[in-house]
Amino acid sequence: MAFTDLVRVIKNLPKRQARKFTGAQMGRLTAAWVTQPMSIDEELRTQHSLLLARARDCANNNPWVSKYLAMVQDNVVGRGFSYQAAVINERDGKPDKEANTAIEAEYKNYGRLGLSDMSGQMTLNDVDRLMIRTVALDGEVILIKHHLNKEDNPHGYAVSFIDTRRLDVALNKDLGNGRVIRMGVEVDQYWRPQNYYFLPLDGDGRVVRQDKHDVFPANRIYHKFVRVDVRQTRGVPSLAGSLLRLNMLEGYEEAELIAARVAAAKMGFFEFEEGTGGFTGDDVDAAGNTITDAEAGSFERLPRGLTFKAWDPQHPNTAFPDFVKTQLRAFASGVGVSYNKVGNDLQGVNYTSLREGNLTERETWKSWQQWMIDQWKVPHYEDWLEHALLASKIRIGPVALDPNRIDKYRPAVFIGRRWAWVDPMKEAQANSVLYGLRLKSLSSIMREQGDDPETMWQECAADNEKLEELGLTVVMNGGGNNGSNGNDSAGASEEDEDGDSGPEEDNPNGETV
């Protein structure tokens, strides 16, 4: 090839395009894709009411969503958070057992039916369960703080829920000096809430849109939502990314169900040959339709000129189960749970896959629990503690704790529920090995199980005292580390110098359990 020919080939080569993100390409296939970023607040201003209405409709009518919301309540709250007061004695730096016991007892009392909420119909655990369900469904939850007299509430403090629909999403105004109202929430220049603007209700409990609002200062409101944007005023329903898919899946299932029912009910059609004049006889109804009976193992003879045409629509479709699974897997991924759990489908799982799925899902629940502890349990507890101290409800004997020392009494630990393993023995053996190697403490093992170590120690001491009182000895089969040298089995009897069994020598008349 001549040099001039080589130059001509090089010039005709396609030019190399500059590197760029493929996701930013513009063309016929991406023409409908958004081109300008928007904040969460900008999108919610026009779509919040629609998202809320559709999410609530799914909660009422979609079994998968009902299952998901039940999973949120059961796994985040369950039977309640474990709680331990953590007051420290200033003299020696050790736990103040008397103060801790008094605070814990009164907080437990506050959790009884009718004390923590204004309706008088819920326990504190009920409040927790309704709160986390509302956050998962509506994307946010709103509660009002009520400061009460001792005659109305012995603790002087309770809360009540307010429907998130009442927070006026259409109220948006610039107040000047950096203060603005965004979707019913007034914030300052640092986006710190100042006031909340609620729409009133009519006699039937319906939201009434008008210029007048019920305005509450921010220090009277618990407004909690999971933040996903820097400047975010309202919460986003956790179902937002799955609503369209859920609606389409529900419609598809309904169509398949109807088609399958029709297919099962209608077997075929009778046709008359042209020119026969139709069938006449006794086996017709008032409308002229042929009456037939279906009997197992029988053959029937059709009249002359009458033929039968079978109808077999083949529903439900053979691809139906796999299609539903695919859509439910996408829904489960969108809300951060396991498909096997939300779909009640354990087919094809084994111990390893189930354990891996459980570990991943439980981290999601633990994140929810920590969010709830930080955003709700601790702030609500501290508000209750302040009012309980002022009401002289917390006492050590006849002496009430001093409300001026509230900073001393604030420390507390909340632990979310924990879960049993598929194979508890394997997990117990693993914990035993880690404890024997001093890579894990007994207290951490207890906390992982959702137990309070301090309470557990007290129960163990009480058990030992009771067993000793009754002359009973507990023998543990299988054994485990007792913490002394990692080799002794729990409950195993040691031999004395004579080679005899210790427990029988020490307790000749005792029984063995």
Task: Give structural notes.
Among the domains are: 40-225, no CATH class; 267-310, no CATH class. It starts with a helix and ends with a strand. With 513 residues, it is α+β, with helices and mostly antiparallel strands. It is built from 14 helices and 16 strands. β5 and β6 form a beta hairpin. It has a 5-stranded antiparallel sheet, with no helix packed on it. A 3-stranded antiparallel sheet has the order 3-2-9. A two-stranded antiparallel sheet has the order 1-14. Mean pLDDT is 83; it is low at 479-513. The chain has helices at residues 3-12, 40-61, 63-77, 97-110, 124-138, 243-265, 320-335, 339-342, 351-390, 406-409, 424-436, 442-448, 453-470, 502-506, and strands spanning 82-85, 140-147, 157-162, 173-176, 179-182, 185-187, 193-198, 214-217, 221-225, 268-272, 306-310, 395-396, 399-400, 412-415, 472-473, 511-512.
